[in-house]
Fold this protein.
Amino acid sequence: MKKTFIGKVDYLTEDFRGVCKGNDEITVVDFCLPQEEIVCEIEDKRGKVSYGKNVKVTMPSPDRVKPECPYFYECSNCALQFVDYGKQLLLKRESVEKVLKNCGFWCGADVCEGIFYPYRYRNALSFDVEYQKGEIAIGYYREKTKKTLDICDCKVCERWHIDVIAAIKTFCGKFDVTAYNKTSQIGMLRGVHLLGAEDSLLVLLDISSGKLRGLNTLKEELSKIKTNVGLWVRVFADQTHFEQPIFVCGEKLLWAKRGKAVMPLVVGSKYRVNEKISELIIDKISDICRDEENMIVIGEDNGVLATQFSKRGFQTLCIDRQKEKTLAYEVEKRNRESVITEFCDESLFAVAHERRYGKLAQTVVADVRGSYAQGETLGWLKRIDAQRVICLIESKFLEENLLAVKKTGYALKYVKPYDFLPQTKHTLALCMFAKKD
């Protein structure tokens, strides 16, 4: 019989889990808010820290709401749907300010900016696939497991994904496509990745072998959902390595690594995970730099940020780390014609300051979030001579990057959090650094 703990939540961790203190022990519990009284079952204990499952809230917080998604408490994708959205924004701002304080910065953070309706915003999805009860299940992992939760409708995703998943399931049934079993290593379909924008759709199917029938039929069905469809298949040679796609239809893609996950990203396209927040970030940076004539914008992988600034007449660089080379998209303000130049130098930040007109950029805007996942930090600031640097940093990489900045000649001047993925633990921080006098 599992041990039961009854207590009051004292505070939340940086990943928004509740912490209860008592009897010289600490209990960490999911799905709770500060000052709530809860009943939880202890599932694990490591030293003086116990980890429990919230089974009942005896005194709920006024900020607690009913989640819109019926899968919320089972699914591992979202973490905060039980919290009023206004409170979510406050918690995310407090989380960023806590990191600033821990790193010795006292500038504080601006208001965390979100969106009006924190659902139906996401247009980039990755689903796991599993065989359940004689049928293919497509969805996210269940909470704290590697079991797939079959999801018909993810509330944070745009509605088109409902029809896409249904079409893929119909395709699998019609052409006898089985789900891959990681234990027995038998089966075909391993994963489904989707990208959507207005009338366009990109679908990537992960499979375990190179023979998959009926792809043209699937493409025809997907074309009924969105006008322009790109269908890709990625073949895994073993458990972790993959070969090049065997079927290509649509726009040219690059393989962009995000930690262990690999997603197809369109070069310079309009595909964005959260278009509304992306626009708010671009508007904010443009407002900060509206009078700056000598600046450069650096983007990475698919260059979404760089591409958008390019359209506004800013000089931009787009980094292709997969091929270990740098592509520069330089836009002349006079005629706004794009010129693509290849650089031999693999150092992103050395290239960034080699301007065609022989001047160093006084302001650098860097969206290099993928490099943080590869262990790089903002330590590169000490190698440049810009007066001002503006960076986008994910919350989980914020502390290590701010500590790295303290060893450079730059000071943190401004921080604004953005709720880039509402209902989840993720926060994006817009940080502005200035050269110390």
About this structure: The chain has eight helices and 23 strands. The helical segments are 85-102, 160-174, 215-223, 275-288, 304-311, 348-351, 369-373, 398-405.
